[in-house]
Amino acid sequence: MRITIMPKPEKHVFVCTQNRPQGHPRGSCASKDCAEIMNEFMNEIQSQNLFEKIGLTNTGCMGPCMMGPSVLVYPEGIMYGNLKKADVKTIIDQHLLGGTPVISLMVPAEIW
Known about the structure:
Blueprint: E1 11-16, H1 34-47, E2 54-59, E3 71-74, E4 78-80, H2 85-97
Parallel strand pairs: 1-2
Antiparallel strand pairs: 1-3, 3-4
């Protein structure tokens, strides 16, 4: 039997894909196009061949539903919110590859 060892990624991105019924008091990232954010991360990671550097996982609710779509980056524990598709490339280039968090996209400290 041959075992394939997966490389440990330098960064891990969690994208909230929580879906709640329409009209739910907390709302959900799904109602704010989180699938588009998840797909854009997948596309960018693939197009830049970053599979060994960046892990990507969809997740349920991470808390600040009013700030969705929400993305959490580890090991730093930095949360981004209110993301648009165009923000994904900025996060990858500036933070995940460049090491500098994108302050303008971060969820405020009093929330996360």
